[in-house]
Amino acid sequence: MTTLAAPKKILPATTAASSNVSLDRKLVRNLAQRSDKPGLLWLASWIAALAVSGFLLSLAVASSSTLLTLAATLLLGTILTVPSYAISHECAHGTAFRTRWINETSLWIGSLLYFEEPYHRRYSHTRHHTYTWHVDKDSQMPFDTPMTLKGWLLEISGVALVLYESKVFVRNALGQFSQQTLAFTPENTLGRLKWSARACILIYATLVLLLARGETWIWTYLLLPRLLGGPVMLLFTLLQHVELKENSPSILESTRSFTTSAIGRWLYMNMNNHIEHHLYPQVPFYALNKLRQAVEPQVPAPDKGFWRLNWEVLSVVVRRSFGLGTRARSLRQASHMIVSDKDAKQAKTVTFAHKTTL
Prior knowledge:
Layout: H1 25-31, H2 36-63, H3 66-93, H4 100-114, H5 118-130, H6 149-156, H7 159-174, H8 179-184, H9 190-212, H10 217-238, H11 251-254, H12 262-267, H13 274-279, H14 288-295, H15 306-321, H16 341-356
């Protein structure tokens, strides 16, 4: 007798509907209308900021002051790196600009600076929205949960990003796609992934070759700023989902919005409104504030303060790594992420008693 295998359970996509959030369709359509003007204005402001910060770095280098040079490099790196992530992300959605070639060109530039092949960026991010924070389904879960100090250091330093993306670049360039990549990439675009990865590797190799031949401006104005600015960018992205619930159909449980300064909102292209973005990813960055106001009664209040929240994340992961309580003061956490000081103390006592009886 043949026993039929049970059909595989198909997970529902993480959407506004799965999160019990709803808006008038006409309002959503209006908010989702695309335009070149806001994106071009933002792009012009980014180029201007890069020019000014690059000029300040040149003055600092000429002054021979190590402290001034380090500060100017960090400034340029932050202005280079956080927006490169943001524009890559927005263009992966195809919402930054109405004109396709401007969107695709910006996707390439942003992704190259961020260090991810553009089409892999697009398709893996689509998967991230489809199964937001689902273990083994979400292709953009960069760290294990609950996060420990080791995971935090690997994430914020950029080591985890470089190791993962380097492997993706090589595998895709060779056409040896992982099962995960095959799962989220349309079959007829695999060739594009392969040739795009090869083009990116060639560009990076050319920069390294030029640097080796004495073009030191590449190190001063590109590579070192990218290295120093990377952790600032990753502090922004870390807040999106850390300490929240895995495998939930509700975006409200897996995703965080947070407040930040006007500069932070500009650098990050309003992606601090991250719950709102996940609920309606078709809405462009320049309409996210209006979207936030529209869904405000249906979603959790944003967590308060970029620097304070990152300090709380660090304090939580340190305490977790040393077996202490993990309750944060104001950072929103999933219930299973929280261990009280009393429970942590009891757990340590039980563990110690168990060891002494061996």
